[in-house]
Amino acid sequence: MQGQLSEIDIRSILQLIELGQRTGELYVETYRSSSHLRTLDRVEPAQSWLMFFLNGQIVYAGDTSGNLSRLRDYLHAQRLDSSLDTTVVSAIASFNSPEYGCLWTLLERHVLSPEQGRTLLQNMVHETLFDLLSLHQGGFIFKLSAALSPQLMTLEIEPLVVKTMKQIQEWKQFHSYIQSPQQCPVILEPQQLQDMMPPSAFDRLSKWMDGRTSLRQISRYLSRDLLTVTKAIYPHIQKGLIQLTTDTSDPIAPPSNTSEIWQESMVPRVVCIDDGAAIRQTVEEILDSSGYEVTSIGNPLKALSLLFQLNPDLILCDIAMPELEGYELCAMLRQSTAFRQTPIVMLTGKDGFIDRVRAGMSGATDYLTKPFGVQELLTLVEKYVGSGNPQRPLPEKLLAEAIQDELEIDSPDQSSQVSPSRP
């Protein structure tokens, strides 16, 4: 599975991994320039990350730089950073991240306790998620693989994502003065700042606010989250007592508010997921002319992202689609409480008993075989979400021609046999 973050966001990718209980690795990269579409194999990334999963839970996450600066910062807070200078990296580092290998070496040498190790891992994963969930341009690849071993702990995705997204929204309040966690504060008016802060706080912060230590590093040194540290110094930045260096190298941009694209509506909302362009266009025209709010999506991975934002009343889903089969998509949606009760109707050119059984096993509510007529489609939609507000009639011939075109492209001889699903 791979694609562009303009098609599916990080949160939806993580939901897909969690719902499918996947074990493997997620590679994400952001580009130096987003002026035009680029593919993962032709563009030098500005920054990249790796996340490791076991049965849909996070084992470890970090960037791919290979340096140990982040781990050293976290150890500095416990006055253990000098232990890295005498550490022989564990053998697992050659296969995974050097940082993860060093962490395990420190555990094996009893420099860190298991509890300290778990705290470090939680902080690292949370920090990486903060960066990834802030992205809106880049590319990703997820591949199934053996689990990262050994594992100190695993973290559930959804609670961590919800917490991180909340912090990102709060972080956006600082954007008029602060654009990146990599910016470095420097004190402009030491005496005034000292008069306004408790002595202990001033002593701890002043030695790091030298224009060379980033907000993120300071938060690591203090064993505090980034938001807490930023809130503490933000009023002094506003007053001009502290200045931030401009960081032009940081690739992370503020997240786009995609939820604003989809406006709330009182009319029944239907989503049609089908890789056939003619089917999508025609179903959209039929339902739109009959007073329904309808969105058609050709990419099942993109659909997974948008479904959580659209919250439709009914989902029409093709079975045979590239990248993700309709059966699998349906089964994953049924594992989410958001879609446990949503009617999901499978659309397909097949008409076999086995396909009906598979549709039922995946959690589908109903099954509609192509070709189907305008009235048949409207009757089914009305059955599950009620009637719309018809605006104009649509000729029956339009849908029949669109379905026939798709059937001829997908399988020229579907009338005599059931075609196998596309991978």
Can you walk me through this structure?
- The longest helix is centred in the N-terminal third of the chain and has 20 residues, at 114-133.
- The N and C termini lie close together (12 Å).
- 35% of the residues are buried.
- The protein folds into three domains: 2-173, no CATH class; 177-244, no CATH class; 258-410, Response regulator (Rossmann fold), CATH 3.40.50.2300.
- The chain has 423 residues and is of the alpha/beta class.
- The chain has a five-stranded antiparallel sheet with strand order 1-5-2-3-4, with helices on one face. Strands 9-8-10-11-12 form a five-stranded parallel sheet, sandwiched between helices. It has a two-stranded antiparallel sheet with strand order 6-7.
- The chain has 15 helices and twelve strands.
- It is elongated and about 80 Å long.
How would you summarize what this structure contains?
The chain has 423 residues and is α/β, with parallel strands linked by helices. It is built from 15 helices and 12 strands. It folds into 3 domains: 172 residues, no CATH class; 68 residues, no CATH class; 153 residues, Response regulator (Rossmann fold), CATH 3.40.50.
